[in-house]
Amino acid sequence: MNWIHNIQSAIDYMEENLLEDIKLDKVAEQANSSLFHFQRTFALLTDCSVSEYIRRRRLSLAAEELSSSKQKVIDIALKYGYDTPESFSKAFRKQHGVAPSEAMRYRGKLKFYDRLIIQVILKGAEPVKYNIVEKESFKAVGIKKTYSLKGNENLVEIPKLWQEVNHNGTVSQLFELNNGGIKGVLGICDDLKVDEQLIDYWVAVESTMTESDLFQLIDIPASKWVVFEVSGPMPEAMQNTWKKIFSEWFPTSDYEHAGTPEMEVYPEDGSDKTNFYSEIWIPIKSKK
């Protein structure tokens, strides 16, 4: 359960530093994870982004203080990281539904978020189907976009990229170049720019091409992969499978993420089908 322990260590770090300027890369370090993998895992487990969790906890503690002390609103605002009473009031009202000045009279109506404790609940009623395979290094050809991890830009912009390539003919062009072992269009995530809080995201196909005027090439290293089957309407089926992987499979497996690029595989067109089949490929290594 090292994985669960690491996530909890990151949460404890956030809680111990709620009054400080928390750097998300430092939070991820507590979990022995890259920022991208930590942000995604945290969101899958909690249905809340890391930044949102910090914001909710700060405003919860701020509400407790306002409702039980005679401190000025400006002092509470500065204590919990807000530069002006106006920005604090706006965030406070969004969470609690009342202004900070009203918090004392409306304590029973305030929305408090407690400190998170990570627990694994093994459901097992609908187990994920997977295979473990080893594959030599290969090349993929496609388009690359770079996204920031700040403000969850990657989570917002990547779906927009897929809409674009599905409508402008890019996916059809890539299918024609797909002559490698993996049949389908790949969504490859490469977070090697961790120091800059950037990730490269590719829409590509495995191909033996060595150069292209239209597309870029990426080398995928030889890896041991765990390949999960995804079946059902998109994007719900893909999102649900990712959640099962990180909440049920990884915590009880003998493996951890290898830290190299991972990918989703879409073998055919027609993501509107109710029984659409796709796959998630995650590079793995044995736990220490």
TrEMBL record:
Q: Which Gene3D superfamilies match?
A: Homeodomain-like, Regulatory factor, effector binding domain
Supply the name of the protein: AraC family transcriptional regulator
Q: Which PANTHER family match?
A: RIGHT ORIGIN-BINDING PROTEIN (PTHR47504:SF5)
Transmembrane found in the keyword field: no
Q: Where is the HTH araC/xylS-type domain?
A: 8-106
Any Pfam family from its record, for instance, is: HTH_18
Q: In the record, what terms sit under GO molecular function?
A: DNA-binding transcription factor activity; sequence-specific DNA binding
Kindly give the InterPro entries that the UniProt entry links to this protein. Answer: AraC_E-bd, Cass2, Homeodomain-like_sf, HTH_AraC, HTH_AraC-typ_CS, MarA-like, Reg_factor_effector_dom_sf, Tscrpt_reg_AraC-type_HTH
The reply to whether DNA damage figures as a keyword in the UniProt entry is no
Q: Tell me the keywords, alphabetical order.
A: DNA-binding, Transcription, Transcription regulation
Q: Where is the signal peptide?
A: none
The UniProt entry, under SMART domains, shows:
AraC_E_bind, HTH_ARAC
